[in-house]
């Protein structure tokens, strides 16, 4: 079907334009599964862009949530290539509808909350905006091991989202968002004024490393489950994990300069990592 091929190419373009890390890792999948991941990423990216860039994000996100519920009943805009691709995915795989709904709930949290008091609140946020993505992908990557891999998928989402938060401190401040828990800031004597001024000192580094250790704990938990993935998806998941984990090392190498710089793993180093896993 020409329209379906066009739809998957559209979704692939979205991921190549927005996340070379995920694209490099999941390009290792067989074509059918790879296309499904592209479609899921397109859905996630669309909802994320509504929240971050929408002119009226609350109204637009509610509209998108309604469109998803209509999609579940077979009603969608057939000119929208994302829905076309996702419809094919739902026909081929037994997808976790509640994980999609959870993701959209997580996106809505960013519209009403821009500070987190406790580490527990932050982990809950990470679950909704990131662990749900892992749960969405499980029917594609490991359809026969979804139950056994659930906890590992949740941990990987938490680890990756904490990594995002540690990388994107400066970008989030521009949107008046501080994901670093307030209780942790008080413990390490780091103030909001310090964050907004971009002042880097040992207190902030210790705070950053405390959150990084939590991320690394969740990466380790996921690593313990990797052998449960089918052979064809084990390497892509492992690749995504190690590429994302490397962001933390990159930030350390660049002296924790997260206020005015966004850190990426170089293409050359990505190739080295993927060739050694």
Key words describing this protein structure:
mainly alpha, 14 helices, 277 residues, 75% helix, 0% strand, globular
Helix-strand blueprint:
Blueprint: H1 2-18, H2 20-26, H3 31-53, H4 57-72, H5 81-92, H6 97-112, H7 119-141, H8 146-167, H9 169-174, H10 182-187, H11 192-197, H12 202-223, H13 231-253, H14 267-275
Helix pairs in contact: 1-3, 1-5, 2-13, 3-4, 3-5, 3-6, 3-7, 4-6, 6-7, 7-8, 8-12, 8-13, 12-13
Descriptive overview:
The protein has 277 residues and is mainly alpha-helical. The chain is 75% helix and 0% strand. The longest helix has 23 residues, at 31-53.
What separation lies between the terminal Cα atoms? 36 Å
Radius of gyration: 19 Å
Computed structural class? mainly alpha
Note the beta-strand portion. under 5%
Task: Summarize the amount of helix as a percent range.
Answer: over 70%
Number of helices, counting only DSSP H or I runs of 4 residues or more = 14
- Pattern of helices and strands: HHHHHHHHHHHHHH
